[in-house]
Design a protein that fits this description.
Distance between the termini: 57 Å
Radius of gyration: 22 Å
Shape: globular
Strand content: 5-15%
Strand order of the largest sheet: 7-8-9-11-10
Structural class: alpha+beta
Largest sheet: 5 strands, mixed
Number of helices: 14
Number of strands: 13
Helix content: 40-55%
Number of domains: 3
Order of helices and strands: HHHHHHHEEEEEEEEHHEEEHEEHHHH
Length: 420
Amino acid sequence: MIRPLDLGATQFTGLAGGYGGAAAVRALAHAQLSKHLLLIKFVVATWTGDPEPRDRAVDVLTRAQSAAPEVVADLLTDPLVGAWLARTTRRLRGAARSATPLDAECNHLSTVAAAAAALAGIDADLIGQPIDGGLALPRLGRVTVDRPGHPPVAVTVRAGRVDVAGASGWAPVRRLTATTAGQRLDVVLDDLDPYRGGHHAPPADRLGEADVRRWQEVFAAGWALIAAHDPDRAGELAAGLRTLVPLARLDAHSARSATIRDAFGAFGLTRPATAAEFAVMLVHEFQHSKLSGVLDLRRLTDPGAAELHFAPWRTDPRPVGGLFQGVYAFLGIAQLWARLAGVPGLPAQPEFALAREQVRWGLDSLAGSAALTADGRRFAAGMRAALDELAAVPVPAETAREAEEKVREVHAGWQERLRS
């Protein structure tokens, strides 16, 4: 009997409390593999173009999976493979549009198959179609194709080497790596994949080598803070964070980050200026990834609910799902700042007090929602229990008052916006 994937009760409760642990994150990632395989099956069954590229890709993926199942499983859980599958599925269902021809979008399957063959060490002969002037092989790099449009191109894989007819250039993926206190984080810095967009800012173009070095420096410093002071969170990140997507900086001052629901284990960001800023972004956005992974397995809110709520970090009314995501992200931030309290030079106490106050207001709003499912109420109760633990963390009375005043100012702005 085939049973649907789910979380165990202990994993669900742990995740609701803001952490969950590396094993729970691996369970969420395993669910992504099943999800991606189902979506590949749908794309293959629904794609109505030339069957030869499709059939070759399916054959290569099948042989690669047989030769190196763990390697192919790792590839197919790549977050941007998930982003491609989600977008293509929506197009096939008539729920999305794109300037890219649908056949080329579907035939990204051949590019994924080429990457699988190279990583699994098998030979392959495929028919690819360039997107945005090239073939981006997940976790490997991008081949520039010197032909206009989206023409079929021969793709040959031999002994781990990928050759593409009409190729005029190759750009390998870059990686960011860091090790502190025995904890290692290794992620792709993806400035190549055509499915890396969808954030509130466009993805950055190919980074220069000097810029990559700056990314590595601040990444390592941010990881050092987390690994040294919040090892449980470090274990989660090491188990589930796969990809960072550099975003274009739209102004000189603001740092931005965002997580896309369909890309578990990835998020987009502008390069943070400081180690603490990077650490907070890592935790904040990975909280969104974790909750999105939970939502693939459990329904926490009524998707048709029309409720709008005050979110204590912004002045526009938020749907209950958006509020849920925000509370979970800020819970993680508050937990991180609590653990960074003893680090010299960091504004840990005021940042902790503010995040804790934001979570309190957000949970109070969720408590009055009629849109939570039974699982949603259990998850919110887990967040409340974690907040109760944070309430015992001492901060100066003046710092606590300033945090409350800041949230009340945002609330006043929210009320003014409702009246206008």
